[in-house]
Amino acid sequence: MDISIIIPVYNEAESLRELSAWLLKVMIKERYDYEVIMIDDGSTDDSLRVMGDICRKNPRFKTISFQRNYGKAAALQTGFQAAQGKVVITMDADLQDSPDEIPTLNKMIRSSGYDMVSGWKKTRHDPLHKRIPSKFYNFTVRMVSGIKLHDFNCGLKAYNSEVVKGIEISGEMHRYIPVIAKWAGFKKIGEKVVKHHPRKFGKSKFGMKRYAKGYLDLLTISFISRYGRRPMHLFGLLGTLIFLVGFFIAGYLAYGKWVNPDYYRMTDRPLFFFGLLAMVLGTILFVGGFLGELICRNNPDRNKYIIRSDAEKYEKISKNNRPQHHQRKPKPKPKPNVQPQPNV
Predict the structure, then answer these.
(1) Which of 221, 217, 131 is closest to 179 using CA atoms?
(2) Per-residue pLDDT tens for 281-300?
(3) Which stretches of the chain are assigned E, i.e. beta strand?
(4) Which residue, 30, 32, 106, 209, has fewest beta-carbon neighbours within 10 Å?
(5) Residue 96 to residue 113: CA distance in whole angstroms
(6) What is the Cα gyration radius of the chain?
(7) Rounded to an integer, what distance in angstroms lies between the CA atom of residue 244 and that of residue 275?
């Protein structure tokens, strides 16, 4: 299958028929072998009924329905698991993402060799109170991740199928799929300017609180990607350093008490309690890192790794480029000079 299109849906009944017709027009024009997977994220309007009507008319449209609202990340993760196409496209259901961008995104994955291509809504039809925080948020993520994208949260993205099968998202982490993909080893991430349409029906389902959650998720992803398999490297190091600070403070106070035993009361100085707190805190951090290592050792997924599917191609290339050593052909052995026997 050429393309799988994943669309999370939450209370978008008004836009679904128009979106499905738009998608069908593009798929027929490009002659793709495709599937459209619509994930109903616990909608309370008629979205599920409309999705059912669309699927009955065209079996290439499929529906997955959640019992309640789990969030966009859960919907995308479910769609990633169900996708069968070589290229996976994600887009929103509110008609602000244009299906006309799909052929170019598909070409960038298939021909240009990108692992992932993210859309960039360079001209946004959103109110000012959404655009300004979004710019600051994208700037922060660029600095932390080192990925040169302008719009991390754009819903319109294209992926090689290996990417969506090799990553896992949950909570509110759909905003950081490029970051998760990079830290999973998929480093060829591109960007394409896409057309952003004004919202035609309904209103946005995301409020200002998503920015606070977004920064907390960024800290979580940063920690898990760097120290998720080796927590002792972080907690053990911090614990050791803090404990040593407290130990040197205690040594300094003990030396003062030894030099002036009559005029020096060690426990009357605030520095004593600071040193004691540092040693206790350092010990707690060190033990926490040790317990984290024990948990990681017993994790059934500790030896789960992503294997490249194109390794055989590189192996064949290396064999073809291997220098051939010319060996001398062995000299033919001389034939024995056999005299013919006379007939008696």
Answers:
(1) 221
(2) 999 999 998 888 888 777 66
(3) 3-9, 34-40, 61-65, 87-90, 116-120, 157-160, 189-193
(4) 209
(5) 27
(6) 31
(7) 9
Reading the block at residue 183, the tokens are 């830290």
Q: Give the residue among 150, 202, 185, 158 at the shortest CA–CA distance from 9.
A: 202
Q: Which residue has 């907690």 as its token pair?
A: 235
Structural contact between residues 8 and 37, judged by C-beta atoms closer than 8 angstroms: no
Mean pLDDT, rounded, for 50-79: 93
Residue owning tokens 């919907």: 75
Distance of alpha carbon 220 from alpha carbon 10, whole angstroms: 26
Q: Which two tokens stand for residue 261?
A: 């035993």
* CB-based contacts of 334, cutoff 8 Å, min separation 6: none
CA dist., res. 247 & res. 269, Å (int): 16
Amino acid at 221: I
Best CA proximity match to 50, nearest among 94, 18, 17: 17
Q: What tokens does 113 get? A: 């060799």
Residues 6+ apart with CB under 8 A from 193: 119, 120, 122
C-alpha–C-alpha distance, residues 108 and 117, integer Å: 7
CA of residue 222 relative to chain centroid, distance = 11
pTM of the model: 0.72
Neighbours of 304 (CB within 10 A): 7
Strand order of the sheet with strand 116-120?
A: 61-65, 34-40, 3-9, 87-90, 157-160, 116-120, 189-193
What does the alpha-carbon distance between residue 229 and residue 291 come to, in Å, rounded to a whole number?
12
- What are the CA-CA distances from residue 327 to residues 268, 331, 332, 334 (Å)? 87, 12, 15, 21
Q: What is the pLDDT of residues 66-109, one digit of tens each?
A: 999 998 999 999 999 999 999 999 999 988 899 999 999 999 99
